[in-house]
């Protein structure tokens, strides 16, 4: 372990961070990632005047390295509890539930305007005229993809490097979400942020996809999830979102992807999964898959710790 923590330490602290997230949820005020987003915006406005690759690298280094170093210093001086606290600040399991289950609840009571507004808070696509099926698809896709970004990637890097590893991953992932666009403004400046996130997510995303395969409720579902991953993922624009979303959609027996409205224009995306279009109930099913995957990862960490202890 790069953190110097043992396997048992990692398992206990990982469970502690997830438990804190379940009990406390996302910080309502002064959330560190919100503050980091403001810092990243200020750096981008200052450095991205010519849109150069080197400016993007410099921006990434200035945003991520000092805060990761500070996290390492705090963990080194503060002991085990700081690692769990840093993980809590990074992980977003309860946040996924708190942002998506209300969409399902609004759709269930027929409140389409409320469901559209809630969905617009978590996705970049246009939801102003979205149907129930469109909103269910958007929420389900968001849960599957962000299960990796907000939960499993964070847990993976926590296992590798403790609290500082979780901080590094979440800051890099946030910069990708802010700068990793292929448009005139960010094509060069955001290149480094996008590529670094791709590298950091390379293994976590495939472990997430494999977990979705394993947790499909039926043998046919497992085969379908595996087949969708292998066949559909290469067509997706993101090398890491493709495996995660295709395997998750296959595990749930859903057809996702396809048409979505961005900036007033309909974009035809590659297909994800096989089966029926998403409906309201599938939002809850997707959340359950993410939750169960978290429990699986905690169980694996505990098993590794016990194996190391009694080996």
From TrEMBL:
Pathway stated in the Swiss-Prot or TrEMBL entry: Cofactor biosynthesis; adenosylcobalamin biosynthesis
One of the protein's GO biological processes: cobalamin biosynthetic process
Alphabetically ordered keywords of this record: Cell membrane, Cobalamin biosynthesis, Membrane, Transmembrane, Transmembrane helix
Subcellular location: Cell membrane
Gene Ontology molecular function: any one: ABC-type vitamin B12 transporter activity
InterPro entries in UniProt: Cobalamin_biosynth_CobD/CbiB
Transmembrane segments: 6-24, 53-74
Topology relative to the membrane: Multi-pass membrane protein
Gene Ontology CC entries for this record: plasma membrane
PANTHER family to which the protein is assigned, alphabetical: COBALAMIN BIOSYNTHESIS PROTEIN CBIB
Family indicated by similarity: Belongs to the CobD/CbiB family.
NCBIfam families referenced in this protein's UniProt entry, alphabetically: cobal_cbiB
Known function: Converts cobyric acid to cobinamide by the addition of aminopropanol on the F carboxylic group.
Official protein name in the record: Cobalamin biosynthesis protein CobD
Organism from which the protein derives: Pseudoduganella ginsengisoli
Gene coding for it: cobD
């Amino acid at each position: 372990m790069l953190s110097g923590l043992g396997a048992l330490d990692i398992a206990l602290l990982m469970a502690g961070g997830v438990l804190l997230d379940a009990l406390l949820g996302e910080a309502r005020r002064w959330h560190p990632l919100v503050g980091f987003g403001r810092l990243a915006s200020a750096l981008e406005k200052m450095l991205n005047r010519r849109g150069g690759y080197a400016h993007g690298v410099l921006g990434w280094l200035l945003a991520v390295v000092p805060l990761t170093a500070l996290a390492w210093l705090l963990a080194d001086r503060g002991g085990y509890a700081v690692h769990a606290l840093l993980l809590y600040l990074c992980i977003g399991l309860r946040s996924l539930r708190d942002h998506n289950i209300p969409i399902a609840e609004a759709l269930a009571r027929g409140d389409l305007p409320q469901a559209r507004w809630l969905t617009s808070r978590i996705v970049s696509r246009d939801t102003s005229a979205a149907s129930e099926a469109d909103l269910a698809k958007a929420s389900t896709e968001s849960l599957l993809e962000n299960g990796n970004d907000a939960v499993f990637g964070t847990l993976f890097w926590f296992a590798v490097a403790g609290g500082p590893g979780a901080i590094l991953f979440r800051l890099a992932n946030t910069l990708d979400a802010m700068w990793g666009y292929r448009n005139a403004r960010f094509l060069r400046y955001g290149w480094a942020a996008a590529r670094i996130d791709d590298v950091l997510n390379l293994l976590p995303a495939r472990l997430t996809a494999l977990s979705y395969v394993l947790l499909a409720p039926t043998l046919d579902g497992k085969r379908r999830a595996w087949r969708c991953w292998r066949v559909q993922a290469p067509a997706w624009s993101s090398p890491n979102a493709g495996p995660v979303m295709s395997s998750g959609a296959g595990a749930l027996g859903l057809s996702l992807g396809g048409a979505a409205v961005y900036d007033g224009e309909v974009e035809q995306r590659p297909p994800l999964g096989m089966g029926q279009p998403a409906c309201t109930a599938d939002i809850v099913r997707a959340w359950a898959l993410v939750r169960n995957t978290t429990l699986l990862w905690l169980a694996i960490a505990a098993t590794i710790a016990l194996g190391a202890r009694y080996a």
